[in-house]
Amino acid sequence: MVEDLLDELRRSGQRATTARRAVLEVLVAAGDGHLSADELTRRVRADHPAIHLSTIYRTLEALAEAGLLTPAPFADQPTTYHLRADVHHHAVCTDCGATINLPPSVLASLRRSLLADHGFHADPHHLTITGRCRSCSGA
Amino acid sequence: MVEDLLDELRRSGQRATTARRAVLEVLVAAGDGHLSADELTRRVRADHPAIHLSTIYRTLEALAEAGLLTPAPFADQPTTYHLRADVHHHAVCTDCGATINLPPSVLASLRRSLLADHGFHADPHHLTITGRCRSCSGA
DNA sequence: CTTGATGCAAATGGTTTGCATGTTT
DNA sequence: AAACATGCAAACCATTTGCATCAAG
What we know:
homodimer, alpha+beta, Arc Repressor Mutant, subunit A, Dna Ligase, domain 1, 3-stranded antiparallel sheet, 3-stranded mixed sheet, globular, DNA-binding
């Protein structure tokens, strides 16, 4: 898994270093969770205490450029990152903060109408839609 | 127009000050354009040179709380703001940077399915969807 | 006159960068 | 060996905050 990703990295002309392997391992272990650069650093350091926060940022940039991961900039909070394989979207409740993961398919009809009406090929890596969840909207 | 908005501000328990009037004037004059705090300050200062950037931020916070405007956090770039009356969404081309304004109605079916499937009442103040515009996707 | 708003300067927090050194290819 | 990645410290930039002063109700 991680080795496959590293191969893809190399194929895109980048080097496979310890830091990059470590970051990918943490991301794979996290499943489809979203990790901030800071949290990622904390976890990477469990095994590699010397790896620096700035390296994590540069690594994330390299991995994103190679198309292996996607940054998910939330409003305010620090940007989080997840593997490209786990593309999904979010519904976030503005009252309680609950988040619902949504499959890419929820955007199917939106994409269709953007294409039909504007010739726009939507390729949303990550989308956050705000609103109120079932329990908060009941209140 | 601006006076109506100021009334609404007062009704929500906030004070109608010079700074707030000035910000509203600039926003109204900007139409549905999106202005960053910095750009807003530049424009406000044309008439009121003493108004400070931090006041603009506090003003924006007050106006947002009163429901008069909406912050639109773009990826990376500084957050921009527009009047609540001009709610709309964006499609941004990742190649050329072109942006298309979209009416709220483009989200109708998405909202319907979120409600049906998750009991989630979507109320997106602002959404940015990435992809490639007609001309760039042709290339 | 009381409470909230403003100006200013200084702090914050996430992210980026310059540079000397270490590692991958 | 050459090119690129890393650690570190310092810079950056948008935004926030403490505090003394000022203005709106």
